[in-house]
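Bumping with the actual sequence this time:
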Amino acid sequence: MIEAKAASESAVSAPTKTDRLVDSAKHHLLQNYKQQPVVLVKGEGAYVWDAEGRRYLDLISGIATCALGHCHPAVVEAAKKQLETLWHVSNVFYTEPQIQLAERLTKAFGGTDSRAFFCNSGAEANEALIKLARRWQHEIAGNKERSEIITFEGSFHGRTLATVTATAQPKYQAGFEPLPKGFVYAPMGDLEAVKKLVGPQTAAILIEPIQGEGGVRPAPEGFLQGLRELCDEHGLLLLIDEVQTGIGRTGKPFAYQHHGIQPDAISLAKSLGNGLPIGAMICGDAVGKALPSGTHGSTFGGNPVAAAAAVATWDLATSPQMLASNTEKGALLHRLGNELKARKPGRVVECRGRGMLFGIEVDTGAADVVARCRQNGLLVNLAGERTVRFAPSYVTTEAQLTEGLTSFERSL
């Protein structure tokens, strides 16, 4: 790997371009992010470059967002062509890219009996799931008392007031009280605990197939099937948050497909537009009837440029060849991670994930490891308190993944 180059000896005292830009950012940007002292200016494939010309191997890809890597030619061409044709119209009109994208997503989810709603982010897609569940219970199923949604400890569903409340992690909720009512939390993987929470007020269950921010923790085998049966028994909707796991990342178009179930609705974002902002909520037709004209909307949702980029991304990211490749590369990450665990017993606690979403839990100092990775020319990020998350682009080669894990070991 090409590591970050040492600063020029001739520029010891002079502020660098990065120094100037970071200083300006600290004066003008809201300081709500804990940003690393790097200004990225260029990307290509699995690499990015900073303002000083240093190159980094990017194995986080915008936190599971640039599925096809940086500036993929097919996505660039699709977006550029649309930019030269039509940028934006209101959703009171149809546009061709939006229809093309909806056709693809609904076919993968459930065919002609499915519907798509477009928005701009994962939080908005999850808001749509929440509104869908409540209104379906109230207006279609006739259960006016049902408004509560069960979510899971360690989850992450967004930063709006509703989705941060659905996120069962107090650190994200602190200071925003009073939080909206209507959410209760169960331990991840504990079906009996979920059953005890189900009551006459329960409307739905919302879960990530793999908790991303919670430390890259997959749902235990059989758990999603148990939730599906529980929802069927009690007339609840099963909602799957596929914001991080969707669009082929785990080796299937949607991660729930590994579990042999059919949810009532799912949320998508992140990889959908390969970095352009677009989110989606996909649901069955019978459930979708709960949101008729005037009940929900989004000004920029399904914007023609973002939708055109998403069509190009979807076609490549969910091709049989790419899905098979993601499965194989995921197996490589697990093998390399477990070999590292054998070499570093105690320091590496566990390797978790599926496909191109992978986490390595360390015994302590995960944030410091992430910082040292950056200094060694590798970009990864923190997920939970002790887990380093890898979410490489699908075009990352096996050689680059091996290189990245070698750099990670050096950073320990």
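The tokens above came from a reply further down the thread. Residues 73-317 form a domain with the Aspartate Aminotransferase; domain 2 fold (CATH 3.40.640.10).
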